[in-house]
Amino acid sequence: MARNISDEALYEYADKVKGQTILITGAARGIGKEAALQFATRGANIVIGDIDVQGAQETVEEIKRAGGDAVCNTCNVLVYDDLVSLFELALSKFGRVDVVVPNAGISEFSRFLDVRLNERGLPKKPPLKTVEINLISVLHTTQLAFYYLTQNKNEGSLKALVFIGSMSSIMAIPSAPLYSASKHAIVGLMRSLTHEFYVNGLRVSAVCPWFADTGIIPAAFKVIMAGLPLASVQRIGGAIVRASTDSSPDVNGSVYTVPDEKEVFRIPYTEITEGAYGLLSKRVKRALGFLQSVRTFIALAKIFAGSSTAKIARRSCSRIWDVQNCALSRLRLNAQ
User: Source organism's superkingdom (predicted)?
Assistant: First the structure.
């Protein structure tokens, strides 16, 4: 159920991070840096990816001065290979990835409705850098997080992916369509993945703060924000810690909002259970559960019956999954 979480309760399960490896993008400053420091002071190993190499290195040095362990790498989140290198750095340095926080993001980069003309006087394609960084790079990080987290066989691993949304994930910001669309998409992405992560032994959640005093707020917008309360960066960091460490089944898929000066408010994952959507959801969940069972069978076959049995099982699984995907596609077409 939805409920407030006090500042003290944000760290109720924080001891779980000791010895875990936390991978964070965009932790050279702001919310990412605060989260990295909070994890590190509780014994976690930190892996930072940021395009601001100097800032990332300063965060690493601050963590080490406090007795923690951290490493950083140059990472342009728009470059897929940079993200792969970051995950590989985590494995080479600490041998595992336990929590992933795709934090890197920017504000509205340009006026979406301002049409630029080419040399022939025709509209040019608008720049979508805000969406590329806030959504596309997060999709890439999500795919890699799923891969590397499922490879982690360490008992007690938190195995969590914590998205960073915004209050604009819930309520759009006027005249900021690209930012609002990208942050709305983060919550949609998180909710869509909730069950598939769950059947694979992983957890997913999103932290959605109000504006905080970080470098992401443009100077011009700060004028509009004058006199309005801002969310505490420390509290946002605490919400990320809570989302990473609370492994209760009923909080999987939750949104942790941080509204202005108020304490964190958790919104649980909910879905429509009636009508056609409810039926479709049940069928998809059954399909995912079946697929996971087949994957388990393949793994056991490799151990006890050799690779030939595993190959047969894998081919069977692929055919069944193709049939199920075809059926689901027809259901979607009929729904339209």
Answer: Eukaryota
Distance separating alpha carbons of residues 293 and 63, to the nearest angstrom: 42
DSSP string spanning 246-314?
---GGGTT-EEEE-TTSPEEEE------SHHHHHHHHHHHHHHHHHHHHHHHHHHHHHHT-HHHHHHHH
Q: Enter the DSSP assignment of 163.
A: E
CB 43 within 8 A of CB 94: no
Strands 264-267 and 255-258: antiparallel
Residue 173 has what DSSP assignment? Answer: P
Annotate 105-157 with DSSP letters as a single string: -----S-TT---B-TTS-BPPPP-HHHIIIIIHHHHHHHHHHHHHHH---TT-
Q: Give the Cα separation of 223 and 227 in Å (integer).
A: 9
Confidence (pLDDT) at 155: 92
- Between the alpha carbon of residue 293 and those of residues 81, 144, 253, 288, the distances in Å are 32, 22, 22, 9
CA–CA distance, 127 with 46 (Å, rounded to integer): 33
309, two tokens: 């049995």
Confidence (pTM): 0.82
Alpha-carbon distance of 80 to 68, in angstroms, equals 28
